[in-house]
Please model this.
Amino acid sequence: MSWTVLLALAAVSYGLKAVGPVLAGGRELGPRTRRALDLVSVPLLAALILTQTVGDGHRLVADARLPALAVAAVLVWRRAPFLVVVLAAAGTAALLRAVT
Amino acid sequence: MERDRILGRAAGIGLGVGVYGVSFGVLAVASGMSPAQACVMSLLVFTGASQFAFVGVLAAGGGAVAAMGPAVMLALRNAVYGLSLAPVLRGRLRFRAAAAHLVIDETTAMARAQDDPASSRRAFLLTGASVGLCWNAGTLVGALLGAGLGDPRALGLDAMFPAAFLALLAPQLRRPGAPAAAVAGAVVALVLLPYAPAGVPVIAALAGLVPGVLIAQGVRAPEVRS
Model:
């Protein structure tokens, strides 16, 4: 993994955080821009969930990750702590792979 | 919130983030980063969702450059947070430049939950310190643990990514327009996955914002008129 990319990501990440406190000095965004930016994470996270559950390179597959996600979904719905959710998902996938 | 309660909540949030940091460290190392890279990333990038997205794309076989896209897109919200926090973070340039690094989900939420600017500032700084310490300590522990683990697939570590993203997404789905944005984004990404280079389907999922924002405006318009 390249250090250059890592440091570039660090620079971009800091630049985005600093726009408000360092540059803008309390200037406000319009309501429409605000609403769009408020929602930015939602389609990205949804896409990450799906592509990392059924994606395998350029193929769509149904493997142990799918039931693992279902277990995670039930736990998230039951408001389980983060650690429980991710460990249960990993455990489900590991178990299914061990027995199949 | 009085002083002690701010300190207590900041410490509690930090502990939760520490656990999250351990899982990040484990996954980063399992995805091909060195423990040093995982730690430097937590120190300098310091925004959880972006870091998870980055190592998630790496783990799925995309290169580091492909992993940049989704990570940067997820970091965009910190710019919004920073703009909303600017009135709380007044002061000398050196202070504002340092405080900017702490502009993330947790610090923003704690600052916004206070009634007066002085408490907001205190909540922001205490939460930033607590989350900063725990996130980096957690990453270090996770990276060291991860280096000793076996085959990431046999341990089901690849299934941790979607679970982690789901835990991040769920609380956001209550916002107006969010369910539509999520479904549209997921569909776009799945349709593109067989054809587009790694990382691109997730960026293209931003198109899901269009139905999301349209619905959010439809929901809010009557409130504005009344």
Summary: The helical segments of chain A are 3-24, 31-39, 41-54, 65-77, 82-99. Chain A touches chain B through 76 residues (CB under 8 Å). Residues 13 and 56 of chain A are 28 Å apart (CA to CA). Residues 3-24 of chain A form the longest helix (22 residues).
